Task: structure prediction
Amino acid sequence: MRIPFTTMKAEVKRVLLKVGMTEEKAEICASVHTESSRDGVYSHGLNRVARFVDYVKKGWVDVNAEPTLILKSGAMENYDGNRGPGILNAKFAMNRAIAISKEHGIGLVTLRNTTHWMRGGTYGWDAADKGYAAICWTNTESCMPAWGAKNTRLGNNPFVIALPREEGNIVLDMAMSQFSYGKLQVTRLKNELLPVPGGYDKDGNLTSTPGLIEESMRILPTGYWKGSGFAILLDTVAAILSNGLATSGIDKVQEGSCGGCSQIFIVIDPYVAGGKDFVERTLNETVAYIKTSEPAIAGGEIYYPGELSAKTRKENMEKGIPADDNVWNEILSL
Result:
């Protein structure tokens, strides 16, 4: 089924108000969940609402918590998220990083003891829409084996890079696994296979069947050993700079996905060195060059990061946002 944007947002907001959020906070969170689904990231949009409600009811997320400043040093600020809603904490951190970069050219905000930020790309789009470059990431509980291992010891640690561009922002939003668990869920709900192997089944065989990977929890690091190494460094840098928990510590908390995680938000004024005309020209030349690639499959199209999201956004605003029947009915019943 397809749900109009305003209908989906209103229903999500109703649910969030029911669990104790203020009008303002419910509005922001409902917007982010709906925008994520609108842009095609269904796994971290509508599909995450019921889980968030469950975490609130269990006391793992405090809807009334606000981030508190722990340390300020030059262009860097460190905050404790106090287990508040991850979306609100991340929005706050990105806005602070933007404000700092206006003064210094670069702003670094670290966030510890926070909760799941839902779609990481949200905060990259926020910065790019305001004319700033951004790099941000989060660590997570262990959900991926290190390269060569069977049991989970690494987070898939979503990583975002965004650049502003008048004809369409360039935004990379990726996990350190070949496919996130959210993507596995969406693909399974559609009764489809992954386009390439995304992990191992319980017998150690590479597979494209999402349910078998969810069962074994042996998702494949992107780039094999490279993704494994990248995940380790993202995790430890986030923990060290925020004075927060690494994946090994989050595992001890045992309070849902990303409960107690650490996050980094870096914002840069991209026009300091060469000016806006230079930046626009460089990005447009790069995009044009990429788009002239010969497709590997006849009739195929080559996309730059963020282009497909923008295309999906336009289509879903016109036709309605796709929603799994069971997921939508679950939201209606909350």
User: Anything to note?
Assistant: The chain has a mean pLDDT of 97. The chain has twelve helices and 14 strands.
